[in-house]
Amino acid sequence: MTTVPDSVHPVRRPVSEEDSRRANRLDWDLYADEYQRTHGDFLGDVGFVWGPEGHQEAELGVLGEREALRGSVVLELGSGAGQCSRWLRSQGAAAFGLDLSERQLQHSRRIDEATGITVPSVCGTATALPFASDTFDIVFSSFGALQFVAEAQVMVDEVARVLRPGGTFAFSVTHPVRWSMPDDAGPEGLRITSSYWDRTPYVEEEDDGTPRYVEHHRTLGDWVAHLHAAGFVLRALHEPQWPEGLDRVWGGWGPLRGRLVPGTAIFVADLSG
Ligand SMILES: C[S@@+](CC[C@H](N)C(=O)[O-])C[C@H]1O[C@@H](n2cnc3c(N)ncnc32)[C@H](O)[C@@H]1O
Questions:
Q1: pLDDT value, residue 54
Q2: How far is the CA of 100 from the centre of ligand 1 (A)?
C-alpha cells in the first residue's frame, strides 16, 4: 500500500468486489514505483521469493522438483513485475503473468528487456481469468491477488477451471494469525488488537468514504473450505520461520515478531480428478 495521506483513514468495514478492485488497482498503480524501488533487489529480477522471510522456491521446492518444472505451463496471479515467473522461465517452464496494475506490468516489461527473459503477461483480475479451461499445470501466487479480492470462492473456482485435472495451486498470503495484530514490526506489533475470527475487511478510505486500499482476511479454515469447495485437496501448509541473521523489515514483517509467530502461510493444493 502507498503511504497513507492525511485525507485517508483506516477502518474495518464491508466492501464489495468491484470497490476492492477499483481501490487496489489505483493503489498499486500509484505504489508500483516505490514497491519496486524498495523491494526489487530483495526479490531479484530473476528470483522467486515466497514472502518477506526471503525463502526461495529454489530452496523450498513448493511447486515440486526442479526437473518437473521444465515444460510445465504456469500462471502467476498478482505477478507484479514478474520476478517469480521469470525465474520459472529460467528453469524451462512456460510461465505467464496476470496483474491488476498496469504500472506493475510496465515494470515487468522493463525487467523483461533488461534480463532478456520475457514473461508474457496480461492486465486483469484473479476473479475473472481470461484463459480457456484446462490450460495450466500450475497456478501460483506469491502475496499476489488473493488477499485483495472480496470474492475468494469465485477466484478459487476460476483457478480450478483453468487448471488441468491433477494440477497444482500454490499461494502465499499474510499468515491469518497475523491479522489480529497491528501492522507493525516493532513492539506495538506484539499485541492482539482484534479477533482472529473477525473477517471484516481492512479499508483505507477517503473522507467521503471512497475506498483507497482494501485487504480481505480469511482464517486458515476459510482457505481450506474454499479449496475443498472448488475440488482441491490440500497437500501442504508451509509456515516459514524467520531466518537467523535476517534483519530486514518489510511493513509489519521483521525479526522481532518473526521469531515468535509466523508471518506467511503458503498453501499447496492439488485439483482432484
Ligand atoms: C504484494 S504485490 C506482489 C507482487 C509479486 N507477486 C511480488 O512478489 O512482488 C500484490 C500484487 O497483486 C496485484 N493484485 C491486487 N489485486 C489483484 C487482483 N484482483 N487480480 C490480480 N492482481 C491483483 C497488485 O497489483 C500487486 O501487483
A1: 97
A2: 7
